[in-house]
Design goal:
mainly beta, 5-stranded antiparallel beta sheet, two-stranded antiparallel sheet
């Protein structure tokens, strides 16, 4: 069974190779990796690319507060873990975050 999940995250984006052509530009590759089991088998990968074209004010805000990204994802209800991988295309710099989707153990006595 699949369900939709809205993923929102803030990137601490510090572009060093951005281009100025009236806007700060750059490209980010995003990969969402849904791991089906703790052993690491059966991962589903969804990829996308974000083309950044930021006005000077938006660029400075991203430097100060981070760049907020949001995506809708087909989330498999059986997914054990979600890993989000972001790569700055111009520098190759990467960052990851993992979300463990296991339910906490029942601690009731």
């Amino acid at each position: 069974m699949e369900m939709r999940a809205k993923i929102t995250y803030t990137l601490s984006y510090r572009p060093t190779h951005g281009k100025w052509d009236g806007r700060w530009t750059g490209e980010l590759d995003i990969a969402y990796v849904q791991q089906a089991a703790p052993q690491g088998t059966g991962a589903a990968v969804t990829k996308q690319q974000i083309d950044l074209k930021l006005a000077d004010e938006a660029y400075r805000k991203a430097l100060d507060m981070g760049f907020v990204a949001q995506d809708d994802l087909n989330a498999a209800s059986s997914a054990y873990r979600l890993r989000v991988v972001v790569r700055d295309v111009s520098t190759g710099a990467t960052g990851t975050v993992e979300i463990d989707r296991r339910k906490p153990a029942n601690t009731a006595k």
